[in-house]
Known about the structure:
Blueprint: E1 16-17, E2 20-26, E3 30-33, E4 38-39, E5 57-65, E6 70-77, E7 84-90, H1 103-116, E8 119-124, H2 135-153, H3 160-163, E9 166-176, H4 178-190, E10 200-206, H5 217-221, H6 232-242, H7 260-265, E11 270-276, H8 282-294, E12 299-304, H9 311-314, H10 320-336
Parallel strand pairs: 7-8, 7-9, 9-10, 10-11, 11-12
Antiparallel strand pairs: 1-2, 2-3, 3-4, 5-6, 6-8
Amino acid sequence: MATISLRHNPQVNTTTQQRGVISEEIQGLIRVHKNGHVERPPIVPNVSCKVASERGVTARDVIINRETNLWARIYVPLSCQSKVPLLVYFHGGGFCVGSASWSCYHEFLTNLASKANCVIVSVDYHLAPENRLPSAYDDGFNVLMWLKREALNGCSSVQNWWMSHCNFSCMFLAGDSAGANIAYNVTTRLGSTILNPLSLKGVILIQPFFGGEERTCSEKHSHQPPNSALTLSVSDTYWRLALPLGATRDHPYCNPLASMAKLRDLRLPSIMVCVSEMDILKDRNLEFSNTLAKAGKRVETFVYKGVGHAFQVLHNYQLSHPRTQEMIYHIRNFLNQ
């Protein structure tokens, strides 16, 4: 497994470049110019769905909405003899970078589909700042409505090559970092929406990217190595680029604990929260889990020792590989409980 290096200097750069003044920059990942132009250097390679897999998984890209260019990469384990759970996945990247075609996600989700024995729909949602929140939530909701329509079409659907393997009564939403935030917010948006024949059984939140104006202890004091995927200043930059203009980090998109009354009233399925011990989000993730449990929600929390944010896709810690295998084992159990 190749290590992906995200060595960045998250300074806001205001020097004049060819395209004008830069208003926000996370070095190596994104550069936003004052005139609105956005650059995303290719720090992680994009790979075709046809990249050979030794794990017995077929992957194909599917257009969900041609007008908006919303698409997904679908993974089907070849070994499934009966219908298996359906996992709708949202990649990370602070809402601003990343793709369903990034090599690190292609590798992780191929591995997950094989070992957890599930069909995965990996959504390539629209990115900020060109498409600020709630754009990504809209995409997630629209994907579920598309899945519902295709499932109702049954065997006549052109998607039957993968849908025939799915147990639609056993659907899960999942994501890491910003993708976990999307999975959670799409879940809360569903409310009483009728999804039949789909049935949402659970949500898997891997290092969910939440925030708030008040800093937690791990945000203030967690020492991050040079190859860390998330520092406090990087986190703040992502939120400035992703939240609606004028919003603070206590906006509900960022801080789901800002309104306790609303949280208690939410209809939520079982939730699995994966926390990394060395992540700046550790304390915020644990507070989120504990608050959900106190509000009477069904929550399972797992803490992965000796690793930080996005270890399962970046392989940037010594213990990344064994902890990733632990995580996949926990996900498989959650899908089949």
